[in-house]
Write a structure and sequence with these properties.
mainly alpha, 0% strand
Length: 186
């Protein structure tokens, strides 16, 4: 029975992972080919994070409100499962990125491993808990667009006037929003 539940999801997880991998490769070799080799991997990671963050917020909100009977003890519904697979694929892709390019960044690697543990357990082992996890995902990813934009602008602010202006104009609003959202989630 467990195998029957797991198998239909593997193609979705593989598809989402493949999409993130293609985005990463396009970012690394086509979008950022002239960027310094020291910041190109980070920029590519930001691009897959942009591809995940805002859509994940919208998908998670829809998944949370798609079932009016859903609560913290509910079994995961099909749309919640889809959003979990979408996010698991992103965290796997970004984890591989960190293991390859930044293997000494144990804090970020640990964060991704812990997140994957929670998502995979919810999705594949207990089949419950998506409501709570997706609620936290909304809070965690709502600042993603601004965070990634700031990170990309910060990486290029030394050699691009436009990037410096973007970084200067977004830094304070981002840190305020980030602090408020993260403070709210605790």
């Amino acid at each position: 029975m467990e195998t029957l539940i797991l198998i239909p999801s593997i193609p979705k997880l593989s598809l989402f992972f493949s999409i993130y991998l293609v985005i990463y490769i396009i970012a690394y070799f086509i979008i950022f080919p002239n960027w310094n080799l020291n910041i190109r991997p980070e920029a590519s990671s930001c691009l897959i994070s942009l591809a995940h963050g805002t859509p994940a917020v919208l998908f998670a909100i829809r998944a949370i409100f798609s079932d009016p009977n859903c609560n913290f003890a509910s079994i995961n519904n099909s749309y919640q499962i889809l959003v979990l697979d979408y996010s698991i694929a992103y965290f796997l892709m970004d984890l591989f990125h960190y293991l390859i390019f930044y293997p000494s960044d144990v804090l970020f690697i640990g964060h991704h491993l812990a997140t994957l543990f929670v998502f995979v357990t919810c999705r594949y082992i207990v089949h419950h808990g998506a409501y709570a996890i997706l609620s936290l995902l909304v809070l965690a990813e709502v600042t993603s667009f601004c965070q990634n934009t700031c990170t990309l602008a910060n990486a290029r602010k030394g050699d691009s006037g436009f990037a410096a202006k973007v970084f200067a104009s977004l830094s304070l609003p981002f840190y305020v929003l980030y602090s408020v959202v993260r403070g709210f989630s605790f």
